[in-house]
Amino acid sequence: MQLNRIALAVSLATLATVASPTALAYKLSPEGTEEQRRMANIRGNWITKLELFAANNGVQHFTDAVHEEITNRMFGCDGGKDECGGAESVRAPTAVLAGVRWNDDPAFRLHSGQGAHTACKVTDTIRFQMQPRCWYQLFEDAKTRAAQGEQFDEASGAALLYRTHFGDLQPLHAMAAKDGDPAQVTQAQVMAWVEFTWRVAIGEIALDDPVRERMPGGLSHAFTRTGWSVQDLFTQGAPGLRRHIREVAFGSLLHTPQDSYAGGHAERSSPSLSRSCELAGRRVVAPGRISEFYSYGQQDAALHGGSDARSALAVSLQEEGDIVEVGRPLVTAFDSKAPWETVKPYFECLFELAPDARPASAADAYRLAGSR
To answer: What is the pLDDT of residues 96-109, one digit of tens each?
Structure first.
């Protein structure tokens, strides 16, 4: 059995070197910090590490600690890339960084009958760091089916990974659930997610509260059939994180505005010095208004991935109203447990639409060849 696992990992590594890269959202370090792995109950032997390396060559949005760097800078890190974005940099609390990772790598389990002909241990929790070969196979399956026009939502019974990356939960990445969705619909879904996570982050929503009873209207349709509690959603298979659920939720919240600055996720106009957003006694230049939220199903992964690399972040940090500047008042408001009614106008400012905002598409600059 062990030899089979080694052979499969080596085969996957070979495949990954020639496969087209897959990317979604600003990139993450593949393993996270030692403390993150401990709190998330992730234990790996050398075979798992080989599988992780192999899968990572194909799933390239786990190659660089861009999300971690942004978050550490929001929490006050002002050093260089290695200091603020290295795999072991923890200026931000460990549980916040775990939450930032959650949007791209949510823990989930497969339903009966799912995962056939894969390396998945279907009775165990699945995360990229826990079952990398399985994760890679499921991601590739979702990508193929999404490109063919298949929809992944709660009614479809699709696994959480399919829904967050290619389906109805793409608003967690500041993207539309599908082509043609009006910008106002996606904006409402994004706002629902940040409201939900903010209320968890300030302790207003408890660990054992049912998600379907506490999710605001914009995303309430996505959780009507599940019996998930907040604990199930954010800390499945990771008991060490349950004592830190507020920080995990805050990290997940931060991921969404971070992604809204990535070119493959949304089109923004240039910031204007005439507009500002204010929170926690701080006024920052407002980011450019959103002209379109893109959807991922018909996007070319390699083209999308270029907008998520650290080089793209470096360019964006030269603009007024950059994501780090915008994020620091959120940290202050989180520390003071500011109520949602206080922070809501700030998020409305961050996700303000342009007057001529368009329905969602893959965007010509990122579209798969041959798709329409």
So the answer is: 999 999 999 999 99
Please enumerate in sequence order all residues whose Cβ is within 8 A of that of 1, keeping only pairs 6 or more positions apart, or say none.
none
Residue 129, exposed/middle/buried by CB under 10 A (0-12, 13-18, 19+)? buried
Q: Compute φ and ψ for 90, nearest 5 degrees.
A: -135, 45
3-state SS, 50-70, equals: HHHHHHHHHEHHHCCCHHHHH
CA dist 246 → 196, 230, 346 (Å): 11, 11, 20
Q: Label residue 138 exposed, middle or buried (CB < 10 Å: 0-12, 13-18, 19+).
A: buried
Q: pLDDT confidence of 81, banded at 50, 70, 90?
A: confident
Exposed (0-12), middle (13-18) or buried (19+): which is 314, by Cβ within 10 Å?
Answer: exposed
Alpha helical stretches, state H, 156-216: 160-166, 183-201, 211-214
pLDDT class of 6 with cuts at 50, 70, 90: very low
CA atoms within 13 A on the CB side of 43: 3
- Residue matched to tokens 């920052």: 284
For tokens 């967050």, the residue is 164
For the entire predicted model, the pTM comes to 0.86
